[in-house]
Fold this protein.
Amino acid sequence: MQAVLRAYSGSGAKELFDVLEERATDVEELLRSVKGFVGYTLTRSGDGGFSVTVCNDKAGVDESLQKAKDWIAKNAANTGAAAPKVMEGSVIIHVK
């Protein structure tokens, strides 16, 4: 399995997470459409937040990154949030 973490902070990040929370059903539907989707977590932090997406393979992680980028551009561009810091890698332990 592969995972990707997208961390958002700075100007507009808090507002972006307000939009993501308000549109949680849409975000969930979008991510469930990713081929090889395993799980998703969205977490608010002090000045923004981060998401973690787990997929069966790198292709799924790459698809999730593109879908998230496109969704934000279409639905939350007005927040002015900067592009996220992205970290990805192989899952060592995944507990359900």
